[in-house]
Amino acid sequence: MELIITEKDNAARRIADILSGESAEADRQNGVNVYKWGGKRCIGLSGHVVGVDFPPEYNDWRDVEPVELIDASVEKQPTKENIVRTLRLLARDASRVTIATDYDREGELIGKEAWELVREVNEDVPIQRVRFSSITKNEVSSAFENPDELDFDLAAAGEARQIIDLIWGAALTRFLSLSARQLGNDFISVGRVQSPTLKLIVDREREIQAFDPEEYWEMFADLQKDDEAFESQYFYRDEDGNEAERVWDEETAEKAYETLESATQATVDSVSRRTRTDTPPAPFNTTQFIRAAGSLGYSAQRAMSIAEDLYTAGYITYPRTDNTVYPDDLDPEELLDTFVGNYHFGDDADGLLEQDDIEPTEGDEETTDHPPIHPTEDIPTKGELGDDEWDVYELVVRRFFATVAESAKWEHLKVVSTVDDLTLKANGKRLLKEGYHAVYPYFNTSENYVPNVEEGEDLSIIDTRIEDKQTQPPRRYGQSRLIEKMEKMGIGTKSTRHNTIQKLYDRGYLESDPPRPTRLAQAVVKAAEDYADLVVSETMTRELEEDMTAIAEGEADLEDVADSSREILATVFDDLEESREEIGKQLQQSLKEDKTLGPCPECGEDLLVRQSRRGSYFVGCDGYPDCTYTLPLPNKGKPLILDETCEDHDLREVKILAGRSTFVHGCPLCKAEEAEEAEDRIIGECPQCGEGAGSESQRDEGGETAEEHGGELAIKKLQTGSRLVGCTRYPDCDYSLPLPRRGEIEVTDERCEEHDLPELVIHNDTEQSSAGQSDESDDGDEPWELGCPICNYEEFKQRERKSGLEVIDGIGAKTAEKLAEAGIDTIDDLKDAEAETVAEQVNGVSEDRLRNWQAKAD
DNA sequence: GCAAGGTC
């Protein structure tokens, strides 16, 4: 039996399809897909299936001095047990093994990990390596016709990175965490990629804090030719002879403006015209894709997650790529052809095909990993995708269109005129030829109209303005800008950069969007700069890259490189150990600042966000135990203190970070007061233990006795901030119904006949409309008529049952409906379904997509 | 429980 190993299941399936001529069948072993045909088996890994770590005796942070990690051994352990098990099982009986992981350094390392697993159980089987940069019939077939050997040196380069990153990251992370006594979930982390990224953000924040605004003036005049007016701006030549518009001195500005204001005419001094070619953008790599999606309002994380869904569904190519040059295998005309006749893209495709020749643009980066991101020939209908998915899909399609479209042409018209000794200029631009903008509407193509004037012509001044302005501090980096910066600095990879930024949020280093560093972040960067400069510098990565290249080219040895890195870290630790207490104090100080809300209303000490022994968060006084003042916090996620301060209590507001359900909680004292007011509005009898519930409670197996009756239903607000309708006899009776977290609850006079409860109406609170989170479906302006809380809950459960399939990524409401018609209602139905038959029954659902869902369902 | 890198 011949065994083929790929980096991921998706690649395994597609390669099996290509090599078998679509005859391969999927067989699940240990929950892993194995594709088989003839005497062949193909298995997909899940990236790295083994990972590096220290031996278990180093596990307890308190028992080990961080410096000891420098010389600790580093071991490889399986991290994906079931895949490793299945691979070993197949390898035992293999007569030949082909490693077909991705064509990049990490792919070579993943290939070597597979090689080692195979060798453990089969000493003699020949193992070959194939390389291809896109999973197309031509590339894959020719790769398998010309197999190569695994490149152990290249893999070793990757191993060096693993070891060095682990040792530096773990030793420094533990050192900082221990010296600041931050051990639980809130350890203080440091790493080769995350720390330089954090420094980038902190440096920008320092610039902003140090920024001293300067006042300046700008002047404008509206000139008119015939009936056409246009704006001109005052400018002068600075010391270097460059055009400058800002006047830094008030007196000078006012003097000039007096001249301008009192004039009635300007004379055209020069008119210059030039045309500029505006070339279409290069194909998408990951970074540029994230940037473009960012300008549509998607966070890096969200953009990638949507792209991954579109990829798994087969609509776009692999979204993690550095490549900006289409491979020879891609025939743009052929791909355009598949869009002909499409409702949304057909006309644009027709237009592009009419061009004389189709020559795609190329970016600077040409790599072997994957093709640039482009649509595949499998085109979804709009209904098959969610709104966001469609938005992103359209972006990818249109970007592909743009790369094969013609250039645009602009005409720039510059008119310089004079008023006495003052000069004015107007820059006009006009789009002469739309070119690629016709198919790619994401760039700004606004024109600025300046009429045709001639030298020497007099124009009347119809209005003048002087504007008093201030220089602005530099802007914070947005997420996509950060990712671009990281790419330029050479840190992180196409697959990890967006996660790194997320990690910085999760670690309590960043807040808000665009990200702002916390005090802790600033202290960590400062400490690293003072004692371990290398770990916040891009130099570390650059030197590592050089070492890795040397290893890959056989000029250096993995062990030597790792050892010299250990030596450098050891000298770093010499300095660190000396200042351990000072560093710890600084970190603790900034940690406290990040937790401080403001003065305690009882004793005036600082109120802090604290964590109970059980792990839940609350507000407590720094004067504890002398002062025992506390306030509750929601126990949903992690609280984050904002800069906004409550005017009534002088306390900073709190935001609760809970992934996608992150929300602003506000001032905890205000919330506590509100909760007290809103407490326990009684709306009726408890259906489980109320007076009238006697006959029903007989169903209870425990046989409740009569004195345990008399419960009433009340609207309650829990300390966590969530609300519910619950029984007043809680905890003896645990009957409860859910209520929405937000909005004011009105108890109306209408009553539900069936349950004898009042109908409820939820009014939106307008002050804090979902900050940045647009996922709330019910945040319109209309109040929500929730109705009887029992009826509402029953309807909710009904709906939830129906949409059981929608928990799977890629299955929307419409698809779920279609599947239900084919008798697939639940996850179990889906798992049992025969993909081939279902694909025939259900329109628009391919076998591939179904298999994919089935895999997810497990 | 530490990193960064794959992938889900």
Automatic annotation (TrEMBL):
Sequence segments annotated as region (Disordered): 264-286, 350-385, 689-713, 758-785
Which superkingdom is the protein from?
A: Archaea
UniProtKB keywords: DNA-binding, Isomerase, Magnesium, Metal-binding, Repeat, Topoisomerase, Zinc, Zinc-finger
Q: Which GO terms describe its cellular component?
A: chromosome
Could you say which residues form the signal peptide?
none
Gene Ontology BP term (one): DNA repair
Annotated ranges, domain Toprim:
1-133
Q: Which InterPro entries match?
A: Topo_IA (IPR000380), Topo_IA_2 (IPR003601), Topo_IA_AS (IPR023406), Topo_IA_cen (IPR013497), Topo_IA_cen_sub1 (IPR013824), Topo_IA_cen_sub2 (IPR013825), Topo_IA_cen_sub3 (IPR013826), Topo_IA_core_domain (IPR023405)
Magnesium as UniProt keyword? yes
Q: Which residues form the Topo IA-type catalytic domain?
A: 151-573
Give the record's subunit note. Answer: Monomer.
What job does this protein perform? Answer: Releases the supercoiling and torsional tension of DNA, which is introduced during the DNA replication and transcription, by transiently cleaving and rejoining one strand of the DNA duplex. Introduces a single-strand break via transesterification at a target site in duplex DNA. The scissile phosphodiester is attacked by the catalytic tyrosine of the enzyme, resulting in the formation of a DNA-(5'-phosphotyrosyl)-enzyme intermediate and the expulsion of a 3'-OH DNA strand. The free DNA strand then undergoes passage around the unbroken strand, thus removing DNA supercoils.
- Name of the protein: DNA topoisomerase 1
Q: What is the lineage of its organism?
A: Archaea, Methanobacteriati, Methanobacteriota, Stenosarchaea group, Halobacteria
